[in-house]
Amino acid sequence: MPTRSLGRRATALTVAAMLTVGLAACTGSDDRVSAGVDAAVTEESDGRAAADEAAAVAGESVVAPERDSSGVVDREVVVTGWIELTSPDPSRTTAELTRMVEQAGGRVEQLTESPDHDGEPGAASMTVRIPAARTTSAVDAISDLATVQQVEISRDDVTSQGQNLDARISALTTSTGRLTELLSEAGSTEDLLEVERELASRQAELDSLVAQREALSDRVAMSTLHIQITPLTAPVTAPSSGFTDGLETGWSALVAFVQTVVLVLGVLLPWLVLLGAGFLVFWILRRRRASAAPPSGPGGADDGASPEDPRDPAPAAGSPDREPELVR
């Protein structure tokens, strides 16, 4: 009996030791996952505060700007220009500008043209993108196509903005890499979900920063030119004097007057025809009513007014109706 009791106690102690070791291992794994997530969160918050601190926390240095052999920083500059042109044919100038931009390796991003009106040429406006290194030569080539009225070129240094984006992208890339490694070490479903949530958030922000960096790089590589093309108006000349010039001016005025009169008659003719037709119908109806009306008295005379009968006796002498005779 004592031997069996000792065996049972030894077995129980062994099982208890194994359980203790297993629990300790699980606890250590969970602690490592939680610690890794906390560390990644700390890295991201520091990266948002300042790009240099974020890169330091992530264990990598900030991406240094490119330098040439003399140690000068390669600056990033965005070039934007506004050009006003005058041309006798804006449509033809627009076509030539489009062909020139495409040959220079650029592209037309916006184009607006107004058609000709009453014999006057229209206008046009366009926005083009050309390689930044060819901006000066492009402006010179444009001046050969049309008359340049105004040119304005601006340059915006965005070197610090590009360095900041590069540093944040580097820090987020390191952070997402560490979170990806923690996915394989998650010891529970809760830890796994937490790591996935943080990883999705970091990846979305990383994609946004990469898109911003690509847009900034495109603005640096391709300059933007806004071009306005207006028609070239003919110069105003003072009228000349002299008999011949006066005769020409008078003849031109007469022709213009006749044309105006003909135009007015052409406008009024349909109305005159309509009014004449209406008056004719009114006159015909009035004649018919007058001819169809019956006489108002016997014998065709009016009431109370009968014609004199020659057979009526003459009024007697002394009658008030008898006219007095003239005394000779």
From TrEMBL:
PROSITE patterns: PROKAR_LIPOPROTEIN
Keywords: Coiled coil, Membrane, Signal, Transmembrane, Transmembrane helix
Residues covered by region (Disordered): 291-328
Keyword match Amino-acid biosynthesis: no
Signal peptide: 1-24
Residue stretches making up the DUF4349 domain: 75-283
Transmembrane segments: 261-285
InterPro entries: DUF4349
Coiled-coil blocks: 192-219
Protein name according to UniProt: DUF4349 domain-containing protein
Native organism taxonomy: Bacteria, Bacillati, Actinomycetota, Actinomycetes, Micrococcales
